[in-house]
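Dear support,

I submitted the protein below through the web form. The confirmation email said the job was done, but the results page showed an empty box. After a refresh the structure appeared. I'm attaching both so you can tell me whether what I see now is the final result or a partial one.
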Amino acid sequence: MTQPTAYDLAHAAAEAAPDDAQARMTLFGLLADAELFLLLESEPVGDSITPQLFETEAGKYVLAFDLEERLSAFSGVPAPYAALPGRVIAQYLAGEEVGLGLNLGVADSAMVLPPEALEWLTETLSSTPETVTGTPVAFTAPALGPAALGALLTALDMKFVHLAGTAAQALLAGVEYQDGSRGHMLAFLGAVQGAEPALAKAVAEALAFSGLDAGALDVAFVTGDEALFVQLAEVAQVFDLPEPEQETHQVIEPGAAPGMDPDKPPILR
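What the results page shows now:
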């Protein structure tokens, strides 16, 4: 028996509380980063893939599954597929009037996302952090309420899984700036050079799916040598980012499979 996946659990939580907007946001946030197995009409040709299209009374849909074995159970025979992040599938279907069916016929977590849901997801993921300047003068323990803090931590945990090796720790604290303004800060300690934009974008997405206002959290990058770092470390809630897994298998060159090169996404026909 297949153990419930993270998507199964998030889907069950959203189904159990249909009026809970945060449960739905958590589900969409997980789908954005999840690897999904998209059913294809034929084997990929270079960087070009052709999803199998299903015509229904409700419109056109393609199918994806959160486990390879679930795709196999649906098709009943070996079938071509592409393993892609949910965000990539949504991006390339947005505006095409094509919806997405997930785990249809093979799991209780079956769900149908109409075209407008994919457009909303793509728009939500397209937000970019705004660069601001400010001089912190004091730090305090996080002052978010239990519900808001829990939603934020859940969203950040989902992001940190995909940020292995980009920073050592993240420190969440309340902050007061020189101009008297107050807020919250998530400071990354020991960020790898060049990883800052990806970390800031991940936090922006976590905010979007946590339900918090985008201006509720500032992102900073620290080395540990800053004058106020000791005060920050004393009051902050500290998270250790996962370390990268050691590669024990053959390395696949970027672009060797459709969707694997982030700078060269697959072409959907």
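Response: this is the final, complete result; the empty box was a page-load delay. The chain has two domains: 6-126, 136-240.
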